[in-house]
Amino acid sequence: MADKTVTMTDNETGKKADMPVRQGTHGSDVIDIRSLHSDLGYFTYDPGYSTSGSCQSDITYIDGDQGVLLYRGYPIEQLAEHASFLEVARLLIHGDLPNKNELEAFDQAITHHTMVNESLRIFFNGFHYNAHPMAMLTGVVGSLSAFYHDTIDITDPENRLLSAHRIIAKMPTIAGAAFKHMVGEPFVHPLNRLSYTGNLLNMLFARPSEDYEINPVAERALDQLLILHADHEQNASTSTVRLAGSTGTNPFAAISSGCAALWGPAHGGANEAVLRMLSEIGTVEAVPKYIEKAKDKNDPFRLMGFGHRVYKNYDPRATIIRKTCHEVLDELGVGNDPQLELAIRLEEIALADDYFVERKLYPNVDFYSGIIYRALGIPKEFFTVLFAIGRTPGWIAQWMEMLSDPEQRIGRPRQLYTGAARRDYVPLHRRG
Questions:
Q1: Catalytic residue among 113, 165, 232, 308
Q2: Catalytic residues per the record (predicted)?
Q3: Phi and psi dihedrals of 251, rounded to 5?
Q4: Own/partner pairs for 323-331, CB < 8 Å, 24+ apart?
Q5: Among 330, 343, 213, which Cα is nearest to 277's?
Q6: Which of 354, 366, 405, 424 is catalytic?
Q7: pTM for this structure?
Q8: Span 140-167, pLDDT tens digits
Q9: Given 17, 38, 63, which residue is the final one in a domain?
Q10: Active site residue 94
Q11: Is 366 an active-site residue?
């Protein structure tokens, strides 16, 4: 029995049950309710699981009230400022920052697996010319299991690590192929002499007819965005990966399910929605009008990129990416970008408005990331693909952690049934 308990009482029967309280390193304690049904005969009801802990995790911690995000205990601000994406990826998977030799070994392991089977590349020819890139990414990632079926024994730690390396390495290659299919250009093979993010940029923008020079500011900005997206606790797509993985499915299928969940506009598609909103607003002069529309519950207009289900303060990732946004636009010669001016003005007005201040609707990371992607020449349909590349190490770390958890069981949420009571079948000729 835990030292601390909470007693639950059925006020109708007077029956009581003591529930143990479990404490973590940071954050609210949790009540272990696994015996609730056997003790009192009840399940809990928590739509969206907003107050339920579905697992125990050592990976990421968020304090939404204080605007804190930690990867394995390290503040996101420090990692985004000083680390590389591959360094963060290894941190998430292995638990500690690597030394120089460990990082070089991890880099080599990822670089070794950047190529995809040529049969897989041909797979893209089956997609319609205007297929959404997330449809291609979700389908192709899931199909990887057909090429590596002999090394996807999830009970084997070496197989799990090999699959992790393969997925992280091949995501940019698959994304590059999806991008080229989308724009109608020849596929570009990975170049292992380039950095992870530099290789991604090259596969997106290089052409056989001309040289492509990677801009270091763009390379660093994209690497930073991938770091900011690398993990975010038990969000919708991560929970989907864990739920799919709890069935014992292969890692490629589990990560593919995460891609599918990320695709939703309320999740990974939010930065795409921000640009659509800015286009709808159009001019700085129109901002006050749209602010009023956003406050009107009967108006369908919604202010995208503001507020977050977890953060009740300023999203710490938004603070970092706002500075990077200005650096990118200045470097690329688009410092007078009208949408950035519009975004900044929208931010200023919203943060000075009592309606948004009282509800703590602060800008989140999606508010600025879409503008950076646009400045890099990436179509808005492709934004979520880049999000998926960044989130992949987090998905994998969560999947690996889940498989090693002795308390993990197959996911099986309960429900509150509100349908018809039991009734008997009526023959067709007797129905009125």
A1: 308
A2: 308, 366
A3: -65, -30
A4: 324/221, 324/224, 324/225, 324/368, 324/372, 325/368, 325/371, 325/372, 327/217, 327/221, 328/217, 328/218, 328/221, 328/372, 328/375, 328/376, 329/371, 329/375, 331/215, 331/217, 331/218
A5: 343
A6: 366
A7: 0.90
A8: 999 999 999 889 999 999 999 999 999 9
A9: 63
A10: no
A11: yes
